[in-house]
Amino acid sequence: MTTRSPIPALVCGEIGLVRSLGEVGVPVYVGSYYDDNIAYYSRYCSRKVHFSHSTSRDFVDALVALGKEEGRKMAFFSDDDRAVLTFSRYRDELAPYYYFNLPDHDLVNTILDKRAFAELAERLDLPVPKSFMPASAEEAGHYADRLTYPCILKPSHKDDWWHPRFKELVGPYRKAILCESREDLLDMYKKVVQINPAVVMQEYIDGDDLDLYSVNLYFNAQGQPLAHFIGHKLRIYPIHAGVGSIVETVKDDEMSQAALQAAARLGLRGHVNIQFKRDRRTRALKIMEMHTRNSLWAYLATGSGLNITAVAYYDMIGETSPLRPNLQQGVKWIDLNKDVKALMDYRRSGEWTVGTWLKSYKGKRVYHVHSLRDPLPLVMDSWFLAKRYTSNGNKKGAAPHA
With the C-alpha atoms ordered 257, 263, 264, 270, is the resulting torsion angle positive or negative? Predict the structure, then answer.
């Protein structure tokens, strides 16, 4: 009598998800739009699948075709908002082929749209910064009079500003732009609407990059929390308006409770990622944004003793998890490529020195790319970086590394 192999997982995302599942024996298929996705080269990648862009109908058709070819349902994972949104929109069509756990589609769409989420959060009295969504230059001027300064300007969806002309029209890419005055805000507004008119003007929460946190949770289909961890961002890149380049597990009961309460009010299930900032003056917690997907640094939890990705896998396929989670605090996740670049900017701003940077690497660490157990992704990442430098910029099909 033969034993059937474990149910595969299709990962449309980064290498941390692949390693988290592969290390517990789950067969992993890696799907990507990018030719240079280093997850393709992981020892845990059982099959490479090249998709059309995740916002396209072709992406859905390819998912269906893969499901039919496989002949059994697979578990779907992604740390890409766009892939999650498209999968959610066509969930009824994809349900015969994939295990997944997502909130209702209207809620997924609302949470991933910063403009819609700001309105919903205000109605539910969630702790979010004051936000305005101008539909015209006239409205922008009106809202500019209602904000205090500095304030920030950010896109409705994070990928709205992933545009080849962003640097030319606006300047270096940032997830959000800090504006020191009304004139600065309206000048930046005129620039960014040339890229995309859907923007959010938002109250600035006082603090620096060390005041940023991310609570990552997983809820079963009944909305019961099965696992969560908090990542404290020690550095980000680009600095002051980027993504975590070194993140550490921490314990904060107040923040955990705030995240659980927000998720309950929203009626969430599945993966939830809530970005908090602690106001330096008042110490109050503010929700900066939220996502209904896996975290980019899910492997931080895995390396800390809580494989939240595997917890989700066993829950989605309806099997009892064999894991015994034991979350360790003070473990660091490092994206070395970004963190070295961040150091250069932090040195110029006077926030970090080479000495303090080196000291921050003390203790247990896991890396976004580097792994002695899975070395080929590092080799390929170095090769792709070298190719990009010699070709003087990204070409179509190259993964964004900002």
Answer: negative
Instruction: Specify the 3-state DSSP secondary structure of 29.
Output: strand
Indicate whether this model's pTM tops 0.85: yes
Both tokens of 9, joined, read 């997982």
Nearest to 54 by CA among 30, 35, 33: 33
- Residues comprising the chain, all counted: 402
Secondary structure (H, E, C), 157-212: CHHHHCCCCHHHHCCCCCCCEEECCHHHHHHHHHHHCCCCCCEEEEECCCCCHHHE
Q: Which two tokens stand for residue 60?
A: 């859905």
Instruction: List the one residue out of 367, 300, 318, 304 whose CA is nearest residue 339.
Output: 367
Report d(CA 313, CA 27) in Å as an integer: 12
User: What single DSSP character describes residue 149?
Assistant: S
Quote the longest CA-to-CA distance of the chain.
74
Q: For the chain, list the domains and their CATH numbers.
A: 1-100+377-402 (3.40.50.20), 130-203 (3.30.1490.20), 209-371 (3.30.470.20)
What pLDDT is recorded for position 399? 42
The pLDDT value recorded for residue 395 is 42
pLDDT along the chain (402 residues), means of 10: 78 96 98 94 97 93 98 97 96 98 97 91 94 94 96 89 91 90 97 94 94 97 97 95 94 98 97 96 94 92 97 97 95 97 96 97 96 96 86 47 36
d(CA 384, CA 292): 30
Taking the C-alpha atoms of residue 293 and residue 80, their distance in angstroms, rounded to an integer, is: 7
Q: How many CA atoms lie within 13 A of 86 on its CB side?
A: 21
DSSP 398: P
Side-chain half-sphere of 400: how many Cα atoms within 13 Å?
Answer: 11
